[in-house]
From TrEMBL:
<protein>
    <submittedName>
        <fullName>Flagellar hook-length control protein FliK</fullName>
    </submittedName>
</protein>
<feature type="domain" description="Bacterial Ig-like">
    <location>
        <begin position="65"/>
        <end position="171"/>
    </location>
</feature>
<keyword id="KW-0969">Cilium</keyword>
<dbReference type="Pfam" id="PF19078">
    <property type="entry name" value="Big_12"/>
</dbReference>
<feature type="domain" description="Bacterial Ig-like">
    <location>
        <begin position="272"/>
        <end position="336"/>
    </location>
</feature>
<dbReference type="InterPro" id="IPR036278">
    <property type="entry name" value="Sialidase_sf"/>
</dbReference>
<feature type="domain" description="Bacterial Ig-like">
    <location>
        <begin position="172"/>
        <end position="271"/>
    </location>
</feature>
<keyword id="KW-0282">Flagellum</keyword>
<keyword id="KW-0966">Cell projection</keyword>
<dbReference type="InterPro" id="IPR044048">
    <property type="entry name" value="Big_12"/>
</dbReference>
<feature type="domain" description="Bacterial Ig-like">
    <location>
        <begin position="3"/>
        <end position="64"/>
    </location>
</feature>
Length: 337
């Protein structure tokens, strides 16, 4: 009897009967197909026990759906163009298009590296799903792909869905940073310092107008490595004496991806280009024989390398100068000749 049965889109196991009237077998549909029109047909090639030929028989229609749903995952900008990179402040529309309507699908079935998804929603009965993808802050990762997890969803016939992934997208929401160093942090007369500004990555839109300099001037900054390291020369302002100074970079520059840079400042540097001054006083300005006078020299600031050799005392002699504890006042005795 098995040879008398024609089966569409599937296989039929061996038919068995206990009374010769009712025959049973197991029908197994073929995999990966979808067909709504199918029948099982019994040919007239069988007969009863006395040889009478049987009539053709046909089952009622049955539907076969063993095809798993598939998906296409895309990221697009507001104009519908593919989005392959995202920077700070940007977002993209995620669209997941299934081959047919699905059920049991939600955000839990989607992996979105280095970002977050708004709630997925469908307006066409479960075939097309959309959400907004927002990249995480302070991230710089070039290889990312949003994926739909296999088997987490199914079509309306309960066939488990296949995995799917978007094209690669890069996330760069990490703003550049900078460090500022001076080759000399204690500048005196005739000195200058090399200023080196090193960014965490190459930057654009950067120049001297982005740098604030205290008590001096900075030569035109230049880079020889494409925008990561910038060098200039700092010359302090003449006549300046200031122990507290910093050089600052504003946040007006960006990296190549367009992320805004962070402001920063150098370590403190001191400037002392102001020459010390001195006043000289004698305790007696009209000396007679046998008299002497105390000579007091008061400096505007502490000095070094000072001695009697620096003093001219006509018509008399000076004892060795001694300094006060703060180094500002020096005294000696003048004895006229």
């Amino acid at each position: 009897l098995y040879e008398d049965v024609t089966v569409q889109n599937g296989t039929l196991g061996t038919l068995v009967s206990t009374d010769g009237i009712v025959w049973t077998g197991t029908y197994t549909p073929n995999v990966n197909l979808e067909d709504t029109t199918n029948v099982i047909t019994l040919a007239n090639t069988y007969s009863d026990l006395i040889g009478n030929a049987g009539a053709v028989g046909t089952s009622g229609n049955y539907s076969v759906d063993t095809k798993a749903p598939s998906a296409v995952v895309t990221l697009q900008d507001a104009q519908g163009a593919p989005m392959t990179s995202l920077t700070a402040g940007q977002s993209a529309q995620l669209t997941i298009t299934f081959s047919e309507a699905v059920k049991d699908f939600s955000n839990a079935d989607v992996t979105a590296p280095n970002g977050t998804l708004s709630t997925l929603a469908s307006t066409d009965g479960g075939t097309t799903w959309t959400a907004t993808f927002t990249p995480n802050a302070n991230v710089e990762v070039a290889a990312n792909s949003i994926s739909v997890n296999p088997g987490a969803y199914s079509d309306l016939a309960a066939n488990a869905g296949a995995a799917a992934s978007s094209a690669n997208y890069a996330v760069d929401t990490q703003g550049p940073t900078a460090t500022i160093t001076l080759s000399d942090n204690a500048l005196t007369a005739g000195e200058s310092a090399q200023v080196t500004i090193v960014f965490s990555e190459k930057v654009t839109g950067f120049g001297n107008t982005d740098v604030a300099v205290e008590n001096g001037t900075l030569s035109t900054l230049a880079t020889t490595d494409g925008g990561k390291t910038w060098v200039g020369s700092f010359t302090p302002t003449a006549g300046t004496a200031d122990a507290s100074n910093v050089m600052s970079v504003a946040n007006s520059y960006t990296d190549v991806a367009g992320n805004q840079g962070a402001s920063t400042s150098s370590a403190n540097y001191a400037i002392d280009l102001k020459a010390p001054t001195a006043s000289i006083a004698l305790s007696d300005n009209a000396l007679k024989a046998g008299e002497s006078a105390t000579v007091t020299i008061t400096f505007s600031e502490k000095v070094k390398d000072f001695s009697n050799a620096d003093i001219t005392a006509p018509n008399g002699a000076l004892s060795t100068f001694t300094a006060s504890t703060d180094g500002l006042i020096w005294t000696a005795t003048f004895i006229p000749a």
